[in-house]
Amino acid sequence: MKNLRELPRFRDGLSYIYVEHGRIEQEAKAIAWWSPDGIVSIPCAALGVLFLGPGTTITHAAVKALADCGCSICWTGEDATRFYASGTGETRSSAALVRQAAAWADPVKHLRVVHTMYSMRFAGGLSNDLTLQQIRGMEGVRVRDSYAKASRETGVPWHGRKYHRGNWSAADPLNRALSAGTACLYGVCHAAIVTAGYSPALGFIHTGKQLSFVYDIADLYKTDTVIPAAFETVAESPARVEAQIRRTLREQLRIHRVLERAVADLHSLFGGEELDVYAVDGAKPGNLWDLKEDVAGGVRYGCAGPGESADESSR
User: Which residue from 87, 101, 52 is spatially nearest to 195, judged by alpha carbons?
Assistant: First the structure.
């Protein structure tokens, strides 16, 4: 059985790749991208997220190769601006999810996580005596200042965040760049969340969506990565910003070490210590819930039949 510990850690890998109008097939232990421009080999063992845009086909063998390497696959709209579906991560333990759910369900712990996430966005942290409403107001000012700073540094005018879900081309180049870049950041954060064993749906600041926790984590890095990348992209050229921002944002993610920080930041929200996502052997059954404590699963707890012992594992 393959030792998953030999694979590169999430923090050591590449961030993401977006492809459209072509075919992905397995190539040796990796994958290859076939398009009218030629064939490109992709080292999926070190890849965090693969975005599949319109006009893309992928073979069963390629999907298996990506899954074996722990690479998340996201099926998206054009330029990765709409999210349709994704594959699962390589997590083997539910310990992180249980810890997240316990914090989410407890009002006191829930507020503590919210405060911690907001504190992570401010260099000097936040005072514990601030109310949630005061913190939200401070966060709003911080985001507006980030837009204003990027506008001053690049010379690109900023007229506010405006976009139309049903009419992509109606938005100006800067807003299209922000939307495309944010979608890519969501993909990276989604991959980090499932790799670390957490649920993308159990959000703390954002709630009610299947990707609520993705929005929470992405907000930790958005002002440092997506906003400057979008303004820089439009300053260079307002044409085809959707393609250009993916390249610019990838560099921002490297500069700010988002892949390296994401999993560690996730664990710090729920106790600090890093959990072993491979702790549970997939070949063994999980435990059974009990009133006092979990009991071993895969055990025949009924009366022993002829030739059977009462503790014989059931299959």
Answer: 87
Among the candidates 34, 53, 86, a domain finishes at 86
CA distance 52 to 64: 15
Angle at which helix 241-255 crosses helix 222-236, to 10 degrees, equals 140
Tokens at 52, concatenated: 């599949």
How many whole angstroms separate alpha carbon 132 and alpha carbon 54? Answer: 41
Give the domain-ending residue among 32, 58, 86: 86
pLDDT at 84: 59
**For every residue of 237-298, which 3-state class applies, written as one string?**
CCCCHHHHHHHHHHHHHHHCCHHHHHHHHHHHHCCCCCCCCCCCCCCCCCCECCCCCCECCC
Residues in the chain: 315
pLDDT tier for residue 81 given thresholds of 50, 70 and 90: low
pLDDT in tens, 198-255: 999 999 999 999 889 999 999 999 999 999 999 999 999 988 898 899 889 988 988 9
The pTM of this model reads: 0.72
- In order of 14, 47, 88, 125, 260, the CA distances from 199 in angstroms are 22, 21, 11, 26, 19
Q: Max Cα separation, the chain?
A: 83
